[in-house]
UniProtKB/TrEMBL annotation:
Name this polypeptide is given: Calcium sensor EFh
Residues spanning the signal sequence: 1-28
Gene Ontology MF, one: calcium ion binding
Location of region: Disordered: 123-197
Keywords assigned by UniProt, alphabetized: Metal-binding, Repeat, Signal
Entry annotated with the keyword Repeat: yes
Superkingdom of origin: Bacteria
Gene3D superfamilies named among the record's database cross-references: EF-hand
Sequence ranges of Basic and acidic residues compositional bias: 137-156
Listed Low complexity bias regions: 177-197
Amino acid sequence: MQRNHKQQILKPFLAASAALLVAGGAFAQASAPAAPAGKPGHHHHMGHGGGWMKAVDTDNDGAISKAEADAYFNKLDTNRDGKIDKSEMDAHRKAVMAERHARMQAAFDEKFKAADKNSDGALTKAEANAGMPRLAKRFDQLDANRDGKLTRDEIRAGMQKMHRDHHRRGPQGQGAPGSQPAPATPSAPGAPSTSGG
């Protein structure tokens, strides 16, 4: 009986997990650099379930066993009632997004530190070109105070502004007909940033 109950739950669980990964992919896309001009279909995302497979396939054999699926189910079922409800899915999604943000931030900080050859906490255009070439392409746009250097704060604020502007314009560079852009919101400390390199 309990086995049938778990099998009945497993299908909706897998579908919900796929939806969770789509949401995670949207977050990854939002924190990645904007698509290059002329390539409206270019997106950064996790692929068709690739992130979910990696999370569940703990022995990395390219398949998900019942034991692996059960272990993942149990990880999400935090109150141990044999079901995964919306609050458990939301909590898991937030934890995954926070972990991804922390990894992205650590990778960015590592690249920034390596590119900052004189260790002054800012990148000159030459340092950006040498160590973070994708970031260098947006150097003038991100250099808000026009001092010829980019600090982490300038990069973070500039990238957040670009993402807000990109989402207001929509995928083709224009807002939806009859829609108004969302109001600008102040940048939150520690918000997602680009890897830049």
